[in-house]
């Protein structure tokens, strides 16, 4: 598009016109010299004045060469002075040549119309009219001189009047033609700049869209794809050799099904194991009625499912809270009665075991109720800018002091993009670059505490060593900060991972199934996004994509 703007800017170029006109002046001198050497010269020029005519042409050639040299050396083509001076000299010299060749009737006077026309294209309106007036005065003076002093007939007067009239007509017509061209050129340039602006805006929107976009031509060559498409298909950031749709086999099969009119809305499933997204593919013609070029839309179905579930849960929130209140009263009576019954001396060992079961499950139900009420009464989040490189070491230190046997727990903190060295949670005050995110600090602490509790529990089940790794940095695609909590357990199967953030979903008998759901709710309240995935090394990972620190809440 910038090349178009450049071409529009050169549609009307007075500097280029002046340069061309200078070359025309040299060509005119050459033609005059040629005519002097041919047999036509006696018919065109007065024989007595031919010597003066010859030297006048030499002087004119010298002036033209000098003008060309000085203008090129001092860049005078970009000024208004050079055209006016050059055209005035032309009027004077051509008038002299006209006088030497026999006056207006010789036909030499018609050459005066060319500098007037050039002035109409290069000079301002008043300057052009002034130049035409000078030209007319010179021509009429020549006619009057020949009529009164040389005794020629009145044809000289008529020819002088005609040339004077033509001078004004030429000046005005060429000026308004050039003015129209100037306005058309300015409008074309403005339109080109507007189109370029729209193109840049469209490109920016395309790159920032969360929906993946691909453009295919009639040979299924990939002409364009945005960052979201690269991210959803897990293409390496440096990969630029994706040229044909057949390089993406599953997507190519879906295109063939679409081409044959077969509906296929199943998500793309053959993705790398560390990607938990389900991608829905839609095809659309780039232009209505033209099935040659196609648009391919790639959407993360998981996000759509979460949005639908969020709407459903929002409508059930108040009902759930009221039910929790109603359950809490009889549950309190049951728990109190079981405690009183446990104090009876007539209970045997089996009765005590039954009472223990009642009390344990009562505590579990009460924990579920507490979590539900916490969700319903949750205060509005108050996001603020947090420097993760300073906040995370403090969190690790506080977390280790708050859990049992915290000194034996190894939590490694790693920052990959800014250059913080790996360390094991021992905070020091050495100066480091900052990594700013926007999150409510207390809610971020609640989320990470829950994730660390889960990670340590699964790591202990695997090898008995309490160890975690927390990574932070900036996302390569979206340029947003992130936090990863990585454990060294066996990981979670993909069919189970799809339901991890659903309320009351748990794989353990003792869990309430609300911990990860609360984490998701807190993240969304801070415009963050949490999901479960595997790292490139196959490690189990909870990934929190934080919002940009300058994003409006």
Polypeptide structure, described:
With 553 residues, this protein is an alpha+beta fold. It has four domains: 2-193, no CATH class; 209-300, PAS domain (Beta-Lactamase); 304-376, Helix Hairpins, CATH 1.10.287; 384-545, Heat Shock Protein 90 (2-Layer Sandwich), CATH 3.30.565.10. It is built from 16 helices and eleven strands. It has helices at residues 2-9, 14-37, 41-44, 50-74, 81-100, 113-122, 125-148, 155-208, 227-232, 249-259, 301-342, 349-376, 388-402, 441-463, 494-497, 515-525; strands spanning 212-216, 222-225, 279-287, 290-300, 384-387, 410-415, 436-439, 467-474, 481-487, 529-534, 540-545. The strands form three sheets. A five-stranded mixed sheet has the order 6-8-9-11-10. A four-stranded antiparallel sheet has the order 2-1-4-3. The protein has a two-stranded antiparallel sheet with strand order 5-7. Mean pLDDT is 77; it is low at 1-9, 272-276 and 418-432.
Fraction of residues in H or I helices: 55-70%
**Helix and strand run:** HHHHHHHHEEHHEEHHEHEEHEEHHEE
Biggest β-sheet: count, sense, barrel?
5 strands, mixed
Strand portion: 5-15%
Cα(first) to Cα(last) distance is 36 Å
- Walk across the major sheet and give the strand order: 6-8-9-11-10
The parts where pLDDT drops under 50 for at least 5 residues are 1-9, 272-276, 418-432
The backbone outline, from C-alpha atoms, is rod-shaped
Rg to the nearest angstrom?
A: 44 Å
Give a brief outline of the structure.
The chain has 553 residues and is of the alpha+beta class.
């Amino acid at each position: 598009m910038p090349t178009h703007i450049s071409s529009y800017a050169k549609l009307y170029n007075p500097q280029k016109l002046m340069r061309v006109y200078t070359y025309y002046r040299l060509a005119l001198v050459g033609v005059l010299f040629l005519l002097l050497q041919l047999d036509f010269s006696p018919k065109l020029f007065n024989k007595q004045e031919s010597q003066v005519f010859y030297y006048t042409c030499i002087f004119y050639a010298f002036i033209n060469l000098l003008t060309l040299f000085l203008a090129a050396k001092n860049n005078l083509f970009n000024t208004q002075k050079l055209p006016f001076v050059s055209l005035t000299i032309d009027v004077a010299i051509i008038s002299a040549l006209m006088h030497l060749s026999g006056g207006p009737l010789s036909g030499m006077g018609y050459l005066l119309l060319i500098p007037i026309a050039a002035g109409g294209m290069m000079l301002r309106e008043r300057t052009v009219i002034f130049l035409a007036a000078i030209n007319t005065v010179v021509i009429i003076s020549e006619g009057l001189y020949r009529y009164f002093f040389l005794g020629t007939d009145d044809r000289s007067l008529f020819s002088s009047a005609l040339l004077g009239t033509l001078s004004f007509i030429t000046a005005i017509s060429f000026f308004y033609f050039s003015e129209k061209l100037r306005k058309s050129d300015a409008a074309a340039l403005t339109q080109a700049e507007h189109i370029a602006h729209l193109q840049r805006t469209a490109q920016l929107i395309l790159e920032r869209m969360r929906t993946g976009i691909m453009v295919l031509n009639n040979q299924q060559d990939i002409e364009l794809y945005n960052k979201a498409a690269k991210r959803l298909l897990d293409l390496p950031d440096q990969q630029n050799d994706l040229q044909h749709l057949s390089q993406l086999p599953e997507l190519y099969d879906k295109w063939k099904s679409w081409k044959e009119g077969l509906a296929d809305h199943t998500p793309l499933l053959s993705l790398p194991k560390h990607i938990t997204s389900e991608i829905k593919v839609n095809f659309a013609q780039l232009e209505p009625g033209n099935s040659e070029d196609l648009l391919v839309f790639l959407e993360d179905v998981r996000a759509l499912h979460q949005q639908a579930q969020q709407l459903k849960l929002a409508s059930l929130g108040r009902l759930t809270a009221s039910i929790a209140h109603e359950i809490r009263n009889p549950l309190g009576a049951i728990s109190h009665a079981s405690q009183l019954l446990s104090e009876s001396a007539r209970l045997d060992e089996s009765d005590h075991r039954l009472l223990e079961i009642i009390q344990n499950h009562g505590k579990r139900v009460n924990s579920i109720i507490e979590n539900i009420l916490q969700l319903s009464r949750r205060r509005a989040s108050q996001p603020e800018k947090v420097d993760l490189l300073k906040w995370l070491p403090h969190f690790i230190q506080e977390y280790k002091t708050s859990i049992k046997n915290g000194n034996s727990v190894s939590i490694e903190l790693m920052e990959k993009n800014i250059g913080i060295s790996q360390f094991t949670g021992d905070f020091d005050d050495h100066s480091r670059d900052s990594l700013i995110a926007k999150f409510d600090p207390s809610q971020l602490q609640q989320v990470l505490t829950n994730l660390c509790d889960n990670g340590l529990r699964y790591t202990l089940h695997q090898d008995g060593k309490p160890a975690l790794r927390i990574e932070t940095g900036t996302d390569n695609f979206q340029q947003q900060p992130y936090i990863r909590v990585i454990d060294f357990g066996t990981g979670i199967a993909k069919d189970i991972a799809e339901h991890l953030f659903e309320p009351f979903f748990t794989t353990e008998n003792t869990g309430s199934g609300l911990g990860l759901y609360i984490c998701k709710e807190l993240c969304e309240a801070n415009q963050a996004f949490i999901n479960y995935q595997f790292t490139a090394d196959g490690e189990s990972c909870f990934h929190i994509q934080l919002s940009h620190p300058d994003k409006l809440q």
